Amino acid sequence: MGLRKSRLTAWIFVGPAIALFAVFFAYPLVASLVQSFQTDDRGETVWAGFDNYSRLFGDELFGKSLINTGLILIVQVPVMTVLALIVAQILNQSWLKLRSGYRIAYFLPAVTTLVAYAIVFRVLLRADNGVMNHLLGYLGVAPIDWLHDPFWAKVALIASITWRWTGYNMVIILAGLQSIPKEQYEAASVDGAGALTTYVKVIVPQLRPVILFCLITSTIGTLQLFDEPYLLTQGGPDNATLTPLVHLYKIGFEQLDFGYASAIAWAVVAIIGVLSFVQFKFLGRRE
Amino acid sequence: MKRLLHLPLIVGAVISLFPFYWMIIAATHKTEDLFTSSPPLLPGGELLNNLRRLEESIGFTQVTLNTVGVSLVYTVLSSLLSAMCGYGLAKFRFKGRGFFLAVILATMMIPFQVLLVPLFEMMASFGWIDTYQAVIIPFLANAFGIFLMRQAFLDFPQELIEAGRIDGCGETRIFYRIVLPAAKPQLAAVVIFTFIGQWGAFLWPLLMLNTEDKYTIPVALSTMVGLSKVDYSGLMLGSFAATLPIMAVFLFFQRQFVSGLLGGSVKG
Question: What stretches pass through the bilayer (chain B) (predicted)?
Answer without folding.
Answer: 7-27, 72-90, 99-120, 132-149, 187-207, 232-253
